[in-house]
Amino acid sequence: MADGTDVFAALSKLVKRFGTSSQGLPAQKEIVKTEKLISFSLLDREYVIALSEVNEVLEVPKCTKLPRVKSWVIGVANVRGRLLPVIDFAEFLGNKLTGPARGRRVLVFEVANNYLGLIVDHVNGIRALPVDSYQPASEKGPLGSFIDGKDDGSKGCQTIIDRGGLVWVQKPDVCTAPAMPTAVLSSSRVDFVGTVAQLADRVKMETLQMEACSQ
Amino acid sequence: MSLFFLDQQKPIEQIDCLVVNTGQLELLLPMPAVAEIIHNQPAISGEKLPQWVAGWIEWRHLNIPLIDFAAMQQDRPAGNFGSSTRILVLNSFCEGHSHKYYAIISKGFPHTLQVEADGDLSSTGATGLDACIKIDLVKEGKKFFLPDFEAIEPYLAKIPLYF
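^ Those are the sequences you sent over. The predicted structure of the assembly is below.
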């Protein structure tokens, strides 16, 4: 059986060899801190609210009307045994809901024991936006006093460009919420601008080209 | 500066190592040889790769070869370890090739082992060890194998650059 000293010496030699020859680790992938938000449309604009602040999203439930209440109080709904006051958020702001009735949803909040549902035109889904692209905003318009800040998407697009990606933008004049594409067009290098149909055609064309290249 | 010089002269009394199960044997890797331990990820197959290379993996914006160590020793095709594996990214000496890093598949999670100069460590002194093994070690009744990193270099030279 060989001496343990020789074995340890062999290990020590290796440690020294790696110590002198090893290089620093290559850069770690940059982690962009994002915040998960629920995106919804109201009065032709897109808004987001922190996912953690919304209890749930419901289809507009059957409501029991209440007497002698403001016109924007639609009524109360029974949600799993709890009474949910439902409010037409657009009417509360002095406007009317613009989206089709079937797309409307209720955002349910529970803040300081107040259980409340707000009807919005459409819920677009969950979006993860980079925290550093948030900018405080002084928003004009019906929701102005409720708006905390904004993200116009331009920083996100710049990140995509920096990583060698492509940025395609919907034409602002055919977009229901044109603020975001307009901001991106004015601040970033954009590879393609088109209508939804043109964007879809472009996706199809690019996919076919990629498939042809991979064969 | 002089302090740094003195520190370099200090004899090593303890070496932190990782024990890695290759599916065939337990490798003892000194920590400086290991760049990082990462989760298992699917390897991308590549052209003209030796059969014991499972493919390419992406690590810190680099594409590095993923090697089945046991397959390399026996010159057989890389095996499938399933999903309960880890991948160890190792430093190379870059002798005769440009692969600064390569990865090996570990069956299960590697565990650390401290080897002390005056500890219970010996070798059976066995000859005719498997390829790429420098020495066998016995510590606390368990047998480990120290890879011959210099012998691994010619194998790395057989792997083409990622394209």
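Chain A has two domains: 27-151, 152-215. The CA atoms of residues 36 and 128 of chain A lie 4 Å apart.

Shout if you want it in another format.
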